[in-house]
Model the fold of this input.
Amino acid sequence: MEYLPLAWAFIIAFCIVVYVILDGFTLGTALLMPFLDNKQRDLAMSVILPTWDGNQTWLVLGGASLYGAFPAAFSMLLPGLYIPILIMVIALLFRGVVFEFRLKDRAHVKYWDIIFTLSSFFVIFIQGTVLANFVMGFELGSSQLLTLPHGLINSFSLFVSLSLMLGYCLLSSTRLIYKTDHELQAKMFRFSFYLAVCIILSIGIISLWTPLINESIFLRWFGHENWVLLMILPYLSVLTFGVFCYAIYNREEYLPFLCAIAFFLYSYIGLVICFYPYIVPYQLTLWEAAAPSSSLHFTLFGAVLLLPLLILYTGYAYKVFKGKVKNVFEY
Done:
């Protein structure tokens, strides 16, 4: 049935955006570590320590959903991206080790902080380069395997990775604003403003750069009615930036984080407009890559049961640990 691939595409897209938001401020916190003193690092780690492991569930669910619902896309993407994904998984494992050992091995905290920052850097770098290559598109080689026509690392992928790092840092700094107080909160107010300026400039540069590196996107943006939707996104971004500046000036604690999430959502909507209906840009559509209807029906039943439980668990976990954080490393 026609709606089944769309339903599964929505589930995968939902898992990805939840992971980006929830684990994004965890990754961003790691990049901010070098700019914090020892006490502030402990406070920052205390913010993310209770909920970090649940964030990975959304990444796993998104990958498993891609494998189950769109096996053709999974089999095409994995060979071409095997090495970078393997590096990302190894870096994620190192991050998990840091969370456990940093709490116990207090004599070597500075080394665990370095590992935490470096492993998170590689995770974000891989995510950025893979995302950039999705935008640039893939090519089918002679053996029907996907190839990266521009190579994994190029000027566009480096800029996208840098922009993603800044975006995750903005998520982290704005979350630390409402989870902490005093010196760390004041520092995050300053950081957040400069990061937001960088993000709005990065979004503008990438928006101008993207149609120039891919003819399909250029035709999609300027040869279809999509330009109407795409024109709305810059206005929303500028409006959100104005609200963000107002929130920072008035020392609002929660509003900056909502604005940071909005920047990611606008970018995500723009990507959807670029890719739809492709799941492997610009080779395979949702319907071409979808599993048989019987498989989609069967797995959708499990997803309908599982997704509400994950949402409830995630919401409950963040509700339990709401409010200002205390330094758990002092106990």
